[in-house]
């Protein structure tokens, strides 16, 4: 056919396509440079350590909740406990800065990630962007507490659920939200059981490798189970049209505490959160290059 290129020859790129390809290459090189930047990596390490502290505090508060019925075992409760101590607000300000730096580092990682297929590449980038938004959210919450503010995740979840129940199509939104949160929990369980979290770590050898694996497996699985319960609570709020059923992490852990042998079950989850916090400290020390 006239105008067709000879067999075996590729069709030359248009100037616009060349510019797009060049822009992608430059963006990836910039992301690679930012990811390896010492300052950015130090912020990422401090953010991971700060997240580790928060999860460790959640575990300790959950342990108290299991045996005394007192405490708010979520990010808000952990941050409130930290700011209540002398110098705690300054510590939380520092944690907020580290968390926001970690969000930036995770976003640059999304730009440079590679994959064998376009679908896998899209999934990995969405996952990194989601992590970045999550770290930024915790960082902003930390800033609120450091400035003397407060937040109630359970109350916010119930208000949102109440509004959704009263809105046409809102029941479907709640069920979808519960499915997404539960799916994230399931992803964490799989990540822990399969030990896929090791891809985020530099090479570790000897006994330390075994210790970090134990922290990672127990931490990921138990946090995943807690998120599955949070998702189920949103679904329950939708199914029974009862906004009081919904709640955040604290509500999920209190729900576990109310079950038969709940104190023992919640103790196991509390220990898991402490393990997850220790894993995050290990990840800060063995940050992947």
Automatic annotation (TrEMBL):
Classify the source by domain of life. Answer: Bacteria
Asked if the keyword Transmembrane helix belongs to this entry, the reply reads yes
- DUF1206 domain location: 47-111, 218-285
Annotated TM spans = 47-67, 87-108, 129-149, 169-190, 211-240, 260-282
Q: Does the keyword Membrane apply?
A: yes
UniProtKB keywords: Membrane, Transmembrane, Transmembrane helix
The protein in question is named Uncharacterized protein DUF1206
Q: Which organism is it from?
A: Klugiella xanthotipulae
């Amino acid at each position: 056919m006239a105008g067709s290129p000879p067999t075996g020859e590729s069709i030359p790129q248009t100037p616009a396509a060349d510019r797009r390809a060049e822009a992608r290459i430059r963006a990836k090189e910039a992301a690679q440079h930012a990811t390896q930047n010492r300052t950015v990596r130090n912020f990422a390490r401090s953010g991971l350590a700060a997240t580790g502290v928060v999860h460790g505090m959640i575990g300790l508060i959950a342990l108290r909740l299991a045996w005394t019925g007192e405490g708010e075992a979520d990010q808000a409760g952990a941050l409130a406990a930290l700011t209540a101590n002398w110098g705690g607000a300054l510590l939380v300000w520092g944690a907020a800065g580290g968390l926001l730096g970690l969000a930036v580092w995770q976003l640059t990682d999304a730009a440079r990630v590679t994959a064998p297929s376009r679908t896998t590449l899209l999934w990995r980038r969405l996952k990194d962007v989601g992590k970045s938004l999550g770290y930024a959210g915790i960082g902003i919450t930390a800033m609120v507490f450091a400035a003397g503010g407060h937040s109630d995740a359970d109350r916010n979840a119930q208000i949102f659920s109440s509004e959704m129940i009263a809105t046409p199509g809102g029941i479907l939104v709640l069920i979808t939200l519960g499915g997404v949160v539960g799916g994230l929990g399931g992803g964490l369980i799989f990540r822990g059981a399969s030990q896929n979290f090791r891809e985020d770590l530099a090479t570790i050898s000897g006994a330390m490798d075994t210790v970090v694996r134990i922290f990672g497996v127990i931490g990921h699985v138990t946090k995943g189970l807690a998120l599955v319960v949070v998702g189920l609570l949103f679904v329950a709020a939708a199914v029974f049209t009862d906004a009081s059923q919904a709640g955040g992490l604290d509500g999920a852990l209190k729900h576990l505490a109310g079950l038969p042998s709940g104190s023992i079950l919640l103790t196991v989850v509390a220990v898991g959160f402490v393990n997850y916090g220790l894993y995050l400290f290990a990840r800060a020390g063995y940050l992947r290059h």
